[in-house]
Design goal:
mainly alpha; 7 helices; 2 strands
């Protein structure tokens, strides 16, 4: 599936005058997202577009989808874990070119907020993606253009 077809299914980038194609609730958005997308693909395809376009309610839906589908485990996080992880995320955010990779910066903010509010250990998929961000400084090359 081409990204443009995916955005059309999600209602991202559809003019607001065309109410037939607009997303009206989270469950419609959730059903439109392909189950095979990894966190990395979701962030670099869908979340990147909604952050760039400041698409509401799609941004809210995307952030909720990320939290619901990709971030949490059932393991409670200790205060030390939360504090150490938050500090590492702030350092990671400083390594990223905020103008070029705003969606990555916003994703890190989403993770920090989620971790401090829910106090649950992050999923393996999330940690692997954060490690890749750390190694590449958010520059994934032409992979997601």
């Amino acid at each position: 599936m081409k990204p443009s077809e995916l955005f059309k299914r999600l209602g991202v980038g559809v003019s607001s005058s065309n109410s037939e194609n607009r997303m009206s609730d989270y469950s419609t958005f959730q059903d439109a997202v392909p189950d095979i997308l990894t966190l990395e693909e979701f962030v670099n395809l869908i979340y990147k577009k909604v952050v760039k376009d400041n698409s509401n309610p799609h941004r809210y839906f995307s952030e909720r989808y990320i939290r619901d589908e990709y971030l949490s485990t059932d393991i409670c996080a200790t205060n030390d874990y939360v504090l150490e992880f938050t500090n590492k995320m702030l350092l990671l955010q400083q390594r990223i070119d905020l103008k070029k990779y705003k969606h990555i910066s916003e994703f890190i903010v989403l993770i920090v907020n989620h971790l401090t509010n829910k106090r649950l250990v992050l999923s393996k998929q999330c940690l692997e993606f954060l490690n890749k961000i750390y190694k590449t400084k958010g520059d994934f090359g032409d992979t997601y253009k």
